[in-house]
Amino acid sequence: MTRHPPVHTAARGPELAARVASLRTRFDAVRARTRALAAPIGAEDAMVQSMDDASPAKWHLAHTTWFFERFALMAGSGCRAVDPQWDFLFNSYYESVGPMHARPRRGLLSRPTLAQVLDYRDVVDDRMRAWLDGPTPPADLLDIVELGLQHEQQHQELLLTDIKHAFWSNPLAPAYRADLPETPAIPETGTSGAGMRWIERDEAIVRIGAAPWPQAAAFAYDNESPRHRALVTAHALASRPVSNREYRDFVDDGGYRTAALWLSAGWDTVQRRQWTHPLYWDDDHAREFTLGGWRTLQPDAPVCHLSHFEADAFARWAGARLPTEMEWEQAATGLAVAGNFADDGRLHPHAGDGAGLRQMFGDVWEWTSSAYTAYPGFRPWPGSLGEYNGKFMCGQWVLRGGSCATPRTHMRASYRNFFPSDARWQFAGLRLARDPA
Ligand SMILES: [Fe+2]
User: Fold this and answer.
1) How far is the CA of 12 from the centre of ligand 1 (A)?
2) Distance 138 CA to ligand 1 centre (A)
3) 185: pLDDT confidence band, cut at 50, 70 and 90?
4) Sign of the dihedral through C-alpha 298, 304, 307, 312
């Protein structure tokens, strides 16, 4: 991280004072939002880990707190850990910080209790506020506070996707929030392809990516930079994501039984895991499990909870392909970051309308055909935080646009999410692209 010289209150310029005030306000809001997301979850729910990839809600609550404690308070002000043993429990993957508890065993942590973790949050919050309000503002570490807020927003989404998987894994199928609005049932009178247009673009050299932060004022992860030129060949991009109705056509057409549609590793995965439909659909393809419990499958809503394998196979069946991340970003650049985000409170994708390019942001993450690799000239952040993104650039694919579980203020056109080919517990769907005939 870039280090700014320490600045005392008396020397706080208006610019620095405004930055501290903004961070202080956002700190309160983001920390409160995480607590609110965890409010419907009981202590027993909060320690469930339903698979290796998912983490218990309690762990998310603690780990996001540990991030501020370890990288801001301890590194910046010499503050002592609330409990030094928790460094081991709540370090996720920072090898340079020290050893860590194995990820698949996070569900074994009945201690500390949920109450202790919530107390931990309160103590660290108080220390952070005192530090931000203090006579010696942590000007050299404000960047870490910004990163901690962005990090916590990522975990807010994971908290939702992980508790959804945990509740789906429970035969009682509890709802995270039974009060979530039921989408009005849409009569099965629509048709596949309705409301979808192909938006054609000529070959072009485009600028993608973000200027490196924190040298640039606007936050972006290190994996989004440097901003650079890329060749985008002539193509057409679908005006909206693929719908449940269209995906159901693929299922009904034997998509999961046709080897020719799948990448070899995908076909192997389909066989081994006996996939026959998206993760949360029932076997009749009439209902799907949501954060509000089992609900009627909405034909015109974007299909979600697909792996990269399934998105890729669907695209091949449809005579199309997945877009590259460059094609996606070219189309998204300049659009308002608006859509169905977590802030809207639906916590599920919903049908849109309008014939133009739509739902680029929110609803579902969109799988791309781009491998998650370094941009030309990529430099990880220095120090431990260089482990944040760069070391995962192997065997994963880029997703774009955010979902109905993403905080709106966390998203931007250059944002690169990434998951392995078989991951499907995220709100991930697809938008088609195709080459000129
Ligand atoms: Fe994390």
Assistant:
1) 31
2) 22
3) low
4) positive
Tell how far the Cα of 372 is from the centroid of ligand 1, in angstroms.
Answer: 18
Q: What is the pLDDT of residue 210?
A: 98
Residue bearing tokens 């009439």: 286
Residue pointed to by tokens 């860590």: 100
Report how far ligand 1's centroid is from the alpha carbon of 53 (Å). 13
8 A C-beta contact, residue 321 and residue 435: yes
pLDDT at 203: 98
Core vs surface per residue 168-190: b (16+ CB within 10 A) or e: beeeeeebbeeebeebeeeeeee
Model confidence at 181, pLDDT cuts 50, 70, 90, reads: confident
Rg (CA), the chain: 22
Token pair, residue 285, equals 């393809």
Query: What is the CA(66)–ligand 1 centre distance, in A?
Result: 9
Please name the fold of domain 13-169.
Four Helix Bundle (Hemerythrin (Met), subunit A) (1.20.120)
Going from the Cα of 171 to the center of ligand 1, the distance in angstroms, rounded, reads 29
Ligand 1 centroid to 316 CA: how many Å?
35
Quick: pLDDT tens for 127-149: 999 989 887 666 668 999 999 99
Distance (Å, rounded) from C-alpha 431 to C-alpha 426?
16
pLDDT in tens, 300-332: 999 999 999 999 999 999 999 999 999 999 999
Q: Where are the domains of the chain?
A: 13-169, 198-434
Q: How far is the CA of 423 from the centre of ligand 1 (A)?
A: 18
How far, in Å, from the CA of 298 to the mean position of ligand 1? 33
The architecture in CATH of the region 198-434 reads Alpha-Beta Complex (3.90)
DSSP letters for 39-59: TT--TTGGG---STT---HHH
The alpha carbon of 225 and the centre of ligand 1 are apart by a number of angstroms equal to 20
Distance 165 CA to ligand 1 centre (A): 19
CA of 190 to the centre of ligand 1 (A): 42
Q: Is 232 helix (H, G, I), strand (E, B) or coil?
A: strand
List, for residues 251-279, the tens digit of each pLDDT value: 999 999 999 999 999 999 999 999 999 99
Distance 61 CA to ligand 1 centre (A): 10
The structure tokens listed for 214 are 């924190």
Report how far ligand 1's centroid is from the alpha carbon of 96 (Å).
15
Q: How many residues does the chain have?
A: 437
- The pTM is what? 0.95
